[in-house]
Amino acid sequence: MLRLELATACLQDPNERTRKVGVTLLAEEGPEADYLLVQSMGDPSSDVWQTARSVLLHRYPWLVLEPSSGRPVPASALEGPYGTAWSSLRQAIGRAVRECERGPQIATRLRTVPGAVPDLTEELQQLPQGAPAREWADEFHPDDSATPRSRQIMLAPTYRCNLACSYCYAKNFGNGFPPDMSLQDMASAFAWAAAQDVSHIVLCGGEPTVYAHLGRLFEMARAHGMIVHLTTNCLYALAIRQLIIDPPVGELVAHYDQERMQSDETVAGTFTANLRAARDGGMDVMIRYTLTGKSGPAEWQPMMDLARRLAVGRINYALAFCGSEGLNAYFRCRDAVGAPGGQLENMLTAFSADAARWGLRLYLCKPFPLCALNIGTFRSMLGGEAIRSACAVFRDDFTRNLTINPDLSTFPCNGIAIRGPKITEFSNLADAGRHHAQAIRGLILRPFDEDCRRCVLWYRGFCQGACLAEHYGMAREEKKRREGPS
After folding, report:
1. For the segment 345-390, what is each residue's pLDDT rounded down to a tens digit?
2. Could you read off the pLDDT of 281-296 as tens digits, one per residue?
3. CATH for 152-481?
4. 311: left (phi over 0), alpha (psi -120 to 50) or beta
5. Is the model's pTM score more than 0.85?
6. Could you give the CA distance from residue 133 to residue 124 in angstroms, rounded to a whole number?
7. What is the 3-state secondary structure (H, E, C) of 51-65?
8. Could you tell me where the beta strands, DSSP code E, fall in 272-313?
9. 367: Cβ–Cβ under 8 A, 6 or more apart, which residues?
10. Any bridge partners for residue 316, and if so which?
11. Rounded to whole angstroms, how far apart are CA atoms 423 and 425?
């Protein structure tokens, strides 16, 4: 209590250094400190309000994450620690924008805290006529400050692969598709994408480098001025290596297959040589690593050592998730829901600590249950992009992960095998997104686990429990079990 009183007195001082000290005193105080912190976001001193922002993110680290669309929070979800914290902060935001003379400044600066934007938007919309921020609130749009993103589309020219990883989510994705996209269809896909101002092509599959017309694909991308992002197991021959140059390949993500790299010297040698060639050619490269239930330091440390030796500074990582056919080995995220201190947290703590020792930056590409982490682990992993929020497949009008299959049919995401019309049957990219929007909304609104119904992070859109592809795969498996043998 004395600390809170001291902080309050400091925040009223005309000296900005004193006010900054007052803000830092609030870092570990109770809910009553939230209003003072939000109010300090309107301080005329940049040093003071940015310190207040940092303290808010220390208290509520999930606010650094960009949420999906939020939903009303039921009373049952307010009982846990996240619910109590959210309620306190929400009340502080509402009170500050209603009562403070600096309401508009506070609102503007809270927009730099991604996770606070949904609550800020709702509070602004509820302001009464005559409130200081009312006129400004009418012009407020939560997305108008977002950084414009280049348009991208995903392309799976083949679902063939030269490996058979046990954890691969795309097992049997090739059923019902031609082995390779024809040259005519590929030309149609590029022409259609160019007409939509698509500037980035993300190659997926399958293994893109086994595609029969890879060279022609690169030629078409170059002719249309498109940047290719290539995810590959890096086990291609020298002739393919000579094709992978910038332009058009602007980024190479090398998938490290732990099941072969430590047991097959030929595989390890080919992978290393191709990755080194891409890096020496000036290409932006990173290593992709998939964590399974069996992963541990003995498995990932050789990968990190290789990254350091090749001067590859980033690791793109994810937990193995359940494929739509249910045929792959995957990390059982449901066992980690609401269980901090368990296998998932222990594994990620050790993984991130080793990455830090090797001087590597982690980039998480698939979400997992945030409730599986203690608040301390949460904070420690927030540096860089080691933790991410809920799946972003719905962004950019549901086109962020739109995938073109070998027969030109579409998936809403390369991991969600909901087959839609051919890309050329859509008049534009937005139409393609709208076609798949209902299915994606259904997955977003479907709780990953029953415990999610009692978690404010799920209702407010920070967490979906796991990758939406896993939601889809598990839903299919549950439906099969309910229906029984056909």
Report:
1. 999 999 999 999 999 999 999 999 999 999 889 888 886 678 877 8
2. 999 999 999 999 999 9
3. 3.20.20.70
4. left
5. yes
6. 8
7. HHHHHHHHHCHHHHC
8. 284-291
9. 388, 389, 390, 391, 463, 464, 465, 466, 467
10. 288, 363
11. 5
